[in-house]
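[User] I have long wanted to understand how a fold can be written as tokens. Those tokens are not coordinates but codes from a learned vocabulary of shapes. Could you go through the record with me and say what the backbone is doing? Thank you; the sequence and its tokens follow:
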Amino acid sequence: MANAGTLRSRVVLFLVVPIVLPVLRAPAEAQANPDILVSGDWLVEHRDDPGVVVLHLGMASMGRPLEEYVQGAYYLDYHDIALDRNDLITELAPVEDLVEVFRAAGVSSDSRVIVVGDPGLHAARVFMTLDYLGHGDRTSVLDGGLAAWKAAGGGVAAEPAAPARGNFEADVREDMLVTAEWIHERLDDPSVTLVDARPEDEYTGERPGRDFLRGGHIPGAYNLYWQDLTGEDIPSLIDLAEVEARFEEAGAAKDGVVVSYCLIGMRASYTYMISRYLGYDTKFYDASWNDWGRRGDLPLVTGKARR
């Protein structure tokens, strides 16, 4: 739901890492897509490697400027990749606009991008966006954000670095996004697992999230609040075995499909990213409950029961 040069050797520190870099090390145990997350220690060691671009995400456009940046990182404003949908700035912007934003931020098609954002769901939203644009296999998120960088001894700056324009091109993955109709047709398909990233009171319908929305959740959806997957002091991913157990409890299978949604598509960006990290075939319902909850033609369930 977002509202939204030819520098061949540049890597974007959206916390971005180049292809010429050594294999990335995941902060947890090895699994299907370990490159999706990198640790503060890894970034300190590789920030200056050729081809790495670090993107530090913020919301200065909303009057919330960042006070500190990862040293050498370029700035990316969240609202440059998101559009207004039903009075909420969370919808994916048109592809041509997204391409321009990433080029201006210093990203090229051969960049290894590392994204830094606090809280983690903001950085995950950028990962999801670049994954949609076909650059997900060259994009990583700094697990734990700025706190992890500083804990690893990384330096900070009061201002972002100035990027040179990149030559990024998109290879759009249209099948990554799903609609309400796509989900509705598969409500009884056991190979499709719906993950609801909202807190429990929104999932049960006690608090719809917005006054004009119906309360509840999509039939069969499993409630996995995104923040339950992160630690408290440094908001990095919790123990991998526990994360895997939660997805298995949801019914996720490596030969099936996991679909993430929330209220507006922000929190679901984190569960989408972690589902991809674990190696599941993952899709994204960008319109989320902001769409499903206002439509009387679609079924819902209230309370804690999935169906």
